[in-house]
Amino acid sequence: MDQNLSVDRLGVRKPDCKVLEYLDPICKDHEARLNAGLEGKARTFHGWAQINVSELRRNSIEIQSSPDEENNNPYHADIVRGIEKRFAQWLAFILRELAQQNELVLRPSPRQDV
Questions:
Q1: pLDDT one-digit tens code per residue, 30-68
Q2: Could you tell me which of 64, 27, 67 has the C-alpha nearest to residue 47?
Q3: Per-domain residue ranges for the chain?
Q4: Count of H helices and E strands in the chain?
Q5: How far apart, in whole angstroms, are the C-alpha atoms of residue 106 and residue 108?
């Protein structure tokens, strides 16, 4: 089982609209695959929790660029979660705190018509 947390790099200093437009159909496809066969329990992907990489590094959280060739996603990256349950719980807490300090980047991307 993969112990890393899958994330997307949305931009350099702030989310880049072109990156969001590129990622949106990939996320729709991923959502459909996750929900296949989950009648009545399907979940919706609403957007991305925005966290600055420097904030992750300040908290000693390792992030690695890992382009996903299978899904044609050059913006994919992994947060190294490790196998220790206590570290995973700490990581979840830190990520929640950092995400609450930033805006949620909703999909579809801001440049698309709803």
A1: 888 878 877 777 777 777 888 888 888 888 888 999 999
A2: 27
A3: 5-106
A4: 3, 5
A5: 6
